[in-house]
Amino acid sequence: MKFRLLFFGFVLAVAAQAENFTQYIDPRIGTGDHGHVFMGANVPFGMVNAGPTQLETGWDWCSGYHESGKKIIGFGQMHLSGTGCGDLGDIGLMPAYGELELSREGLASEYSHDSEVAVPGYYRVRLDRFSIMCEMTATERTALYRFTYPKGSNNARIIIDLENTIGDQALDTRVMPVDDYTLMGYRRSHGWANDQMVYFCMKFNKPIHNWLSEGPNAKYGEATFMVDPGDQVMVKVALSPTSEANALHNLNAEQPGNFDFDAIANAAIAAWDKQLSRIKATFRTERERTIFYTAMYHYMVAPQLWNDVTGDYMGCDMKVHRGADYNTLTTWSLWDTYRAAHPLATIIMPDRMRDYAKTMLAMYREWGELPVWHLVSNDTYCMVGEPAVPVLADIILKGEAGDIDINEAYEAVCASMLPTEFAKVRRVPLRGKDYLAELGYLPYDGREGEVVGKSMEYFIASWAAAQLAGKLGHKEDSVRFHDISMNYKKLYDRRVNVMRALDSKGEFRPLPQNFNPNQQTGDYTEGNPWQYTFLVPHDVKGLAELMGGDKALEKRLDDLLAASSDLGENHAPDISGLIGQYAHGNEPSHHILYMYNYVGQPRKAQKWIRQVMDELYTDQPAGLCGNEDVGQMSAWYILSALGFYQVEPCGGVYQLGSPIVEEAVIPVGEDKTFTIRTHGGSDQAIYVKKYVLNGKQLKGTTITHEQIMAGGTLDVYMTK
User: Fold this and answer.
1) At 293, is the secondary structure helix, strand, or coil?
2) Quick check: bond before 512 cis, omega within 30?
3) 122-127, strands of its sheet edge to edge
4) Band of the pLDDT at 9, cuts 50, 70, 90?
5) CA nearest neighbour of 315 among 397, 371, 264
6) For the CA atoms of 566, 570, 574, 578, what is the dihedral angle to 10 degrees?
7) SS3 state of residue 454
8) pLDDT tens for residues 635-678?
9) What gap in Å lies between CA 477 and CA 486, rounded to an integer?
10) Do the Cβ atoms of 355 and 311 come closer than 8 Å?
11) How far is residue 239's CA from residue 460's CA, in Å, rounded to a whole number?
């Protein structure tokens, strides 16, 4: 980090402050292997992720950047982080000299990692083809670029690229000058987000010497500038989901006045530092601290802002909604994040939960159900289940929903879970929920695939709906949802002791003579029978009973971790980070190690949790064993490093594990803090002798949300 600090005074100024958590972050972590993380400049949860888009394409370029990439085609204003699908990269800027072929390959320039500098809120790289130094920083809705041109010319240019992005197709574009310094336009596209609109406004610090395009609806524009050697052309870029006028309004609100790059960069770094200080932690090693705070950084990329400074936003109904009194959010990877990222948010950022809940209810009003995988005004319907239900239920059950209409929230849950009965308007695909209402599960001889994966996720959401119904006094609904959630028992095939698909008559799919639970089939979602057998976080004791008791579940957990890691030829690349058939690189496994607590074996949980933290998270580019999945991989590490994890999908009962922090202080409101302190920890002392909360030893292996948010100190005494 010191190497980076030597380059820029504004970074040095921030580093001189008493507490500077940004210095512990290495943005390179997760840019290798299959991490798919964003590289560039942004602020926490900002609309703008300004950074390089590389020439190379493919699964490992879902964010537009991979450590192995050799060429850059421009700097886009929007990028995903850690997803399993690619999109965005919209509104590219490419500084250059002379005539260029306006194509993906024609714009490309080689670069070197040696010229890259990346800290939260700031990114720099040199384009070797043109010897142009490119720097960028950001606010919530805007980016600021500084391009240093090495030689004088009246043909120094910046290409505005509305064609080349990350895996989508431009349908309608516009870019046009409105004065000598300003461009405005929009880009409409079709990709993972089916119908995406983004508007922009750009202002330059130098007058445009010449503007070239094939007309206002061209996919490229070229602004040329008169420069002397060493001149810097700077450009402010603002985005809006609603209009060009609002893009200009966002620009004037967030970057008024002069082009003060250092001031904007300092503010971005300070914004990161403020958010990172939600957990003030110390560690025994620099490696652990780097991994932890980089996880915090990745965790705070999304959900992203999706409204103008006026409160205007583009809804799921593709209509502009004016003046919302909350921050509308997007990039909801809920199948991943309901497991750890959202429970963590209820602890360290309860002030954001009103925005989460109000955004979800707006989506319900506009579209007819809660979000599944929301991206820039579209639901992609990526992944399975109803993952917003446990998130919304968790926020309400923990009392963090603010002033939302609880009755509407419950209506949204019912309409999402049982749309054939509760939905007011049929706008959305049923996704097998008619089978859920009729049979209690999805049959393999119906119209749906991945029926085990979908059914198991619906059972989890049904359990969450039951908890919310019970809390609100809807007793009959609570019983009904609970009964549906217990139907996982029907899928348990005792002949092979795994979850398998049923037909509409309740008969299992014929059992192959050479059945191998390591093999993924079309009945499972990014997993195989091994992993889905344990996808019962809502009823671990019931699963143990189903298997024959606590000892039987303990043995199955042992067998899972000791099984061969051979997945065969045909399996999703997401099944990664394997210990036996425990797949930490994908989310259905994330609660499994904590299940040892339920069968009286917390030492086994502690052993394996520490092994995952020590071996499957590193401080290198290949430091993630699977997709970051928009904060979920990092949230698992953060919670486990603190020493607890919410296994049940909502309600606030956390299973205790093996913390690696020396001390962690979490502000929990009203001048209260919750502090975790470990005593006697070492590389060998990874087991817990006792947990002491506010001077009183805890019985069992749980702590509640209420206990954490009341403040106090949890002392954890470690042993070999």
Assistant:
1) helix
2) no
3) 117-119, 122-127, 132-138, 142-148, 232-240, 196-204, 182-190, 169-179
4) very low
5) 371
6) 0
7) helix
8) 999 999 999 999 999 999 999 999 999 999 999 988 999 999 99
9) 14
10) no
11) 38
